[in-house]
């Protein structure tokens, strides 16, 4: 392929993904051929969750459009596997790394190798902690995600609008709510939980919301590896010990769709029926099965974080760094990784409930009406 043709493809793809720098991908010294920008290693945590598959596919295709070769690896939530995958990428001569970690604190050594080899590292969605090797962080506004998860619950209970605005004449409650958080080795889990508690605490203080299990600390409500079955068994335990007779759970704060599905299974197993005092349940990621669960009335809402936009942002950061440019960031305060505050770009999440599935997920091309079964 002629260089001019490649440049026009690069420019066109840059426009498609909204890249700021049209020279993106033209950082290699080669004169033609696919992947002329060099090899980029993309490390993803697991294929067991659909979202990471979408993320990986989007990052790979966008990097390829920008003229790079891509080594995309999934570690199935096995930390040593992720370490060795990244080591391999370095050995193979990767010019940059995009990393969504399993445990953000476990990559310090391998990332030091990347740093020693002058390989820039972009943290993808999850912060890389305890390292100076990370150049930039592409993610969503994780505190806002947590607030939106709580607003999903308060909206379903009739207490607020979806944006948190109090509803006049809202019921006084008390509503029985249980809390779930994500994996403590994922920095995001703390942002989600803090954001959610920022919304829920005033209702708890006012007695509108009560937590019958008494479990309100993140350590008590966390879910290792965001695992649905772990969440299911905790929910089963809580239902057995705290809820009997007329005492029903009215709302459940869930930080992720896979956890919500575990919670739904626990409720079904304990005799709860959709439509008959079924609790309000939040989520995150707009995974297809959970969007279907929203249509079916099992889950009240989810948080939509468009993986295509996150991929575009990470690709934009990577190509800018490789071109010796400074990528655009919009947060230089909140993401201290234990070594320094990592310059970050936070995208804006949104809440999906039954009424806006069409607008949020179908009109944007994220899922088709057929896939959802609309
Ligand atoms: C978090 C991510 C969430 C969700 C969760 C479980 O790090 O921000 O969107 O995917 O992991 O995979």
Summary, kept brief:
It is found in: Cell envelope. By secondary structure, the protein is α/β, with parallel strands linked by helices.
For the record, the CATH architecture of the largest domain stands as: 3-Layer(aba) Sandwich
Which descriptor suits the 3D outline?
Answer: elongated
What is the helix tally?
Answer: 13
Quaternary class: single chain
Q: Superfamily at the CATH H level of the largest domain?
A: Response regulator
What hetero molecules are in the model?
beta-D-galactopyranose
Give a structural overview:
The protein has 374 residues and is an alpha/beta fold. It has 2 domains: 3-140 and 306-347, Response regulator (Rossmann fold); 142-305, Response regulator (Rossmann fold), CATH 3.40.50.2300. 41% of the residues lie in helices and 14% in strands. It is built from 13 helices and 12 strands. Helix 2 packs across helix 11 and helix 3 (79-91) runs parallel beside helix 4. The structure holds beta-D-galactopyranose. Residues 1-20 form the signal peptide. This is Putative multiple sugar transport system substrate-binding protein. Residues 40-326 form the Periplasmic binding protein domain. It is found in: Cell envelope.
């Amino acid at each position: 392929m002629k260089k001019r043709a490649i440049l026009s493809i690069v420019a066109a793809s840059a426009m498609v993904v909204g890249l700021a720098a049209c020279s993106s991908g033209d950082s290699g010294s080669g004169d033609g051929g696919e992947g002329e920008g060099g090899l980029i290693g993309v490390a993803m945590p697991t294929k067991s969750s659909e979202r990471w598959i979408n993320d990986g596919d989007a990052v790979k295709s966008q990097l390829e459009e920008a003229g790079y070769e891509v080594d995309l690896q999934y570690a199935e939530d096995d930390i040593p596997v992720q370490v060795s995958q990244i080591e391999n990428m370095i050995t193979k001569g990767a010019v940059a790394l995009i990393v969504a970690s399993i445990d953000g604190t476990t990559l310090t050594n391998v990332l030091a190798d990347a740093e020693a080899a002058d390989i820039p590292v972009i943290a993808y969605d999850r912060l890389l902690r305890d390292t100076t090797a990370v150049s930039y962080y592409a993610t969503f506004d994780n505190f806002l995600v947590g607030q939106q998860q709580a607003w999903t619950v308060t909206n379903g209970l009739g207490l607020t609008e979806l944006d948190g605005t109090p509803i006049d004449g809202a019921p006084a409650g008390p509503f029985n709510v249980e809390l779930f958080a994500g994996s403590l080795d994922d920095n995001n889990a703390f942002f989600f939980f803090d954001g959610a508690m920022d919304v829920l605490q005033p209702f708890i203080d006012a007695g509108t919301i009560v937590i019958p299990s008494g479990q309100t600390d993140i350590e008590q409500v966390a879910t290792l590896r965001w695992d649905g079955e772990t969440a299911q068994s905790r929910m089963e335990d809580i239902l057995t010990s705290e809820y009997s007779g007329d005492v029903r759970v009215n709302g459940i704060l869930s930080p992720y769709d896979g956890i919500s599905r575990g919670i739904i299974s626990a409720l079904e197993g304990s005799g709860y029926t959709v439509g008959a005092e079924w609790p309000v349940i939040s989520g995150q990621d707009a995974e297809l099965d959970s969007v279907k669960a929203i249509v079916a009335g099992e889950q009240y809402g989810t948080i939509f974080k468009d993986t295509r936009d996150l991929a575009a942002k990470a690709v934009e950061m990577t190509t800018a760094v490789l071109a010796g440019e400074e990528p655009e960031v919009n947060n230089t305060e909140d993401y201290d990784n234990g070594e320094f505050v990592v310059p970050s770009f936070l995208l804006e999440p949104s809440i999906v409930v039954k009424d806006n599935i069409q607008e949020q997920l179908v009109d944007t091309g994220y899922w088709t009406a057929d896939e959802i079964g609309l």
